[in-house]
Amino acid sequence: MKVRITVLKKARYEDLIAKYENPIEHACDIREGDVFVSENGEKPQGLCDSAWESMRIFVEELANGGGNFYDGWMKDPHSAMISCNDGFRPVSFYIETINGEEEKI
Q1: What distance, in Å, lies between the first and last C-alpha atoms of the chain?
Q2: Which residues, 6 or more positions from 63, have their beta carbon under 8 angstroms from its beta carbon?
Q3: Percentage of residues in the chain having pLDDT higher than 70
Q4: What is the pTM of this model?
Q5: CA separation for the pair 56, 53 (Å, rounded)
């Protein structure tokens, strides 16, 4: 089964970056509205490794027909809302199963 991963929100906490993070040149290329499709629970091309590790278990479960995480957490039991683990620049992803007709992105 295919799973669509949509970037819904991207935050940036300048106060935390200034206080705690060492300067880095490049952090994240993901933009709100970006869409990735996972086939058979595999990491989509272009999705960063850190974000993938945050959502991998959910994507794999959905790809294998599972869902209903945490006993009714999501309105659609075949979906999840996951954030990457970057505390300075968290990105929120909506993850959902799709069929062939919905795949057009």
Answers
A1: 16
A2: 1, 2, 3, 38, 39, 40, 41, 97
A3: 94
A4: 0.89
A5: 5
